[in-house]
Write a structure and sequence with these properties.
Blueprint lengths: L2 H8 L21 E5 L4 H12 L7 E6 L15 H12 L2 E7 L2 H6 L9 E4 L6 E4 L22 H17 L7 E5 L8 H4 L4 E3 L13 E5 L7 H10 L6 H4 L15 H10 L1 H14 L9 H7 L7 H7 L28
Parallel strand pairs: 1-2, 1-6, 2-3, 6-8
Antiparallel strand pairs: 3-4, 4-5, 7-8
Helix pairs in contact: 2-7, 9-10, 9-11
């Protein structure tokens, strides 16, 4: 019997609805685990799944990409997300790190005949970051990312998350020794495109056959075949308070002003984050180009109905501080569960 089979059989508290397969990959072979952690339910389920598979929390890093950067822009993301992610890592005993593209979403969107901004990644010294790049070819955007599965036009995912994460893995010296498993939470039922993702494969930053050094990095999507019910089941069993966005009615936790936002979500943003709504609206008018192909966010909001957002959760979601206990004995399924989930196709 393998170590992972033993761990599986010994987890008597697991519910039957959460079908754990810890045999792919062989988790005991990895020195470290990096969960690219948005704060949403799926990446949270991944972190909890690693614990259920017997991985010590001390070997797990929750790594969050600051979509708006760290230089002061507040254009797109939920203000509370970074604080929430950090609180989850602390509660679970996991390391927490961040990385970002300088200036975040706003600077990249306003790029005019200039290079894509540098990336900041954690340095070897704890609590420090270092700057990489910023010397690429000049280019111009001057419009929002578009609602598309094509990352060339939906550049927020590629420029602010995927590329930032890859630069971290390729440039931090700790990844040049031992084996690293990168863990992400894409699920097949989310979209046709995601259903075709490989469950386990070498990461794009892998360099295991390099001449100077061997950087062994694999990519695992452990919940790829899970249903949304299985995701909520593992969160409930661990008694983790989900991201505040779910309590406001969102079925998926991305940016507050996500380009995939539904008409009801935009109607709600106009109520709970009026100034941010206006700023996005102003940029659409400035560019002469809306996020959606046919409607401005104002037109979408007019067609929608705002969620009944509780003032308590609205205040927390719009704060940069998260002081609630992450682990609770009075766990409640949020109103957004199984609800309005708009995301990549």
């Amino acid at each position: 019997m393998s170590t992972q089979q033993f761990l599986f059989e010994d987890l008597s508290l697991l519910e039957e609805s959460t079908q754990i397969n810890c045999n792919e990959p062989e988790l005991q072979d990895y020195e470290r685990f990096v969960v690219f952690f948005s704060g949403g339910k799926d990446s949270l389920a991944c972190a909890l799944h690693l614990l259920d598979c017997g991985i010590p929390a001390s070997r797990i890093e929750l790594h969050h990409h600051l979509v708006d950067g760290a230089e002061g822009s507040k254009l797109m993301d939920w203000p509370v997300t970074n604080a929430y992610c950090k609180a989850v890592a602390l509660a679970l005993g996991m390391a927490y790190e961040t990385s970002w593209r300088e200036g975040g979403f706003e600077r990249e969107m306003l790029r005019k005949e200039s290079a894509t901004a540098p990336v900041w990644i954690p340095d070897v010294e704890a609590g420090q970051h270092r700057r990489l790049g910023g010397d690429g070819p000049p280019g111009t955007r001057l419009k929002f990312p578009q609602v598309s599965a094509n990352l060339a036009v939906r550049w927020c995912s590629s420029a602010l998350k995927i590329d930032v994460g890859a630069r971290y893995l390729a440039n931090h010296p700790k990844f040049n020794s031992g084996k690293t498993l990168v863990v992400t939470g894409e699920r097949a039922e989310e979209s046709k495109a995601r259903s075709n993702y490989h469950r386990f494969e070498p990461h794009r930053s892998d360099l295991r056959n390099g001449r100077k050094y061997q950087r062994h990095i694999d990519h695992w999507r452990p919940i790829h075949q899970w249903s949304e019910k299985q995701v909520w089941d593992i969160i409930e069993r661990h008694r983790i308070v989900p991201h505040p966005a779910y309590y406001l009615g969102w079925g998926r936790c991305s940016c507050r002003q996500c380009i995939f936002g539904s008409k009801n979500q935009w109607a709600t943003i106009r109520v709970v984050a009026a100034e941010s709504f206006k700023k996005v609206q102003q940029f659409e008018e400035q560019f002469g180009h809306t996020i959606h192909r046919t409607d401005s966010i104002g037109q979408l909001a007019d067609k929608g109905v705002a969620f009944k957002a509780a003032p308590f959760w609205t205040e927390i979601a719009n704060s940069e501080i998260f002081e609630l206990s992450v682990i609770t004995e009075n766990w409640v399924l949020p109103s957004g569960a199984y609800g309005d989930s708009c995301g990549p196709t």
